[in-house]
Amino acid sequence: MKTRELKVARIGNSRGVRLPASSLKRYAVGSVLVMEERSEGILLRPVGPAFEKLSWEDTAREMSAANEDWSEWDVLDADGLDSIPWQASMGRRVREKRTPYGSKLHPRKEAIKRYEVRWALLDPARGAEMAKTRPVVIVSLDDLNTRLQTVTVCPITSRLHPAWRCRLPIQCAGRPAEVAVDQIRTVSKSRLGPRIDSLSNDEASALRRLITEMFGE
């Protein structure tokens, strides 16, 4: 979590701070803020419902109890993402010739960029892995995306769990959705379909922080 020191200025009998314009824009702050007094200090947030993230232990407990079954045939319909157009033929799908890691096989006509949202064929899947055809966000570095035959992705779902610490809320093609960082994986480029969206700079920054928090400690 990014922190910064703010200078407290006198305003009559009260005190005030100047909030950075970038932070106001990121959190869509209007003319009113909500102040919450907590044991660890004061929290300022935009007006509207607030979802406090669970601890990692409580998140794991809730996820285990939810027992999400991504192998169901109607998962994509339940996600509400099936109406996003799929316009490209996937050809031979996931079958491809063996090739030395990182060597060029069949160069794609368009570059794959970090933080793009693309369709991906995630089958075959096992157990609790996300399955079927669904949007994913590319999280691997562009230097790797350019040279390797694989990319690292996080699947996207519109099954919203705002309190789960491992899920990042985003907008996917204008729809509320979540990036499932707990389902991060490396896949072949041959699994990818067309680009349908990309993360905003703020969403990308939040995703980097969450991946670091989850896997970097």
Could you describe the 3D structure shown?
Helix content is 20%, strand content 28%. With 217 residues, it is an alpha+beta fold. The chain has 2 domains: 9-46, no CATH class; 56-215, Roll (SH3 type barrels), CATH 2.30.30. The strands form 3 sheets. Strands 5, 6, 7, 8, 9, 10 and 11 form a 7-stranded antiparallel beta sheet that branches. The chain has a two-stranded antiparallel ribbon with strand order 1-2. Strands 3-4 form a two-stranded antiparallel ribbon. The radius of gyration is 20 Å and the shape is globular.
In short:
Helices cover 20% and strands 28% of the residues. It is globular and about 65 Å long. Strands 5, 6, 7, 8, 9, 10 and 11 form a 7-stranded antiparallel β-sheet that branches. A two-stranded antiparallel sheet has the order 1-2.
DSSP summary: helix tally: 5
Total beta strands? 11
What is the CA-atom radius of gyration, in angstroms? Answer: 20 Å
Uncertain runs: 72-78, 86-108
Mean pLDDT figure: 77
CATH class category name of the largest domain: Mainly Beta
Number of domains: 2
Instruction: Give a short account of the largest sheet.
Output: 7 strands, antiparallel
Q: How much helical structure, as a percent, in the residues? A: 10-25%
**What would you call the shape?**
globular
Order of helices and strands: EEHEEHHEEHEEEEEH
**Strand fraction band?**
25-35%
**Structural class by sheet pairing and helices:** alpha+beta
CATH topology name of the largest domain, in short, is SH3 type barrels
What does the oligomeric state look like here?
Answer: single chain
CATH architecture of the largest domain: Roll
Q: What distance lies between the first and last C-alpha atoms, to the nearest angstrom?
A: 14 Å
